[in-house]
Amino acid sequence: MSGWLSKLAGGGMLLLLVASICLGGYSSLLSHRLELARQQSAEQQKTLAQQAGLIATLQTQDAQNRVLMAAQQKQEQQLRQQADIFQRKYRDAIKNNKCAAERMPDAVLELLRGTDTSTANANRSVAP
User: Where are the annotated coiled coils located (predicted)?
Assistant: First the structure.
């Protein structure tokens, strides 16, 4: 019986040895995975910090663009109002003027439109 117990004890020890080797290998694998997870977490933290900086920059630029657009719209509105005022003043000025009611000569209209071909040809220099 003692032979049987010694074999059982030797087999148990062998089993414990194999189990401890397996657990040690599994522990090593988990430690390696933990280290990789920590490295990945650190890289993600860097990426998040960079993205936060970019977002802050974009928000600042967006605010500046909104201010510039508001100023541009205000200026365009002022120019439209000024043009309307000038148009009204012009209409009031020519309302009772006989000359303004008459048709302009064709030559004047062509000059104003830039379609006068006779003066364009006359102003050209002739090459020798």
Answer: 69-96
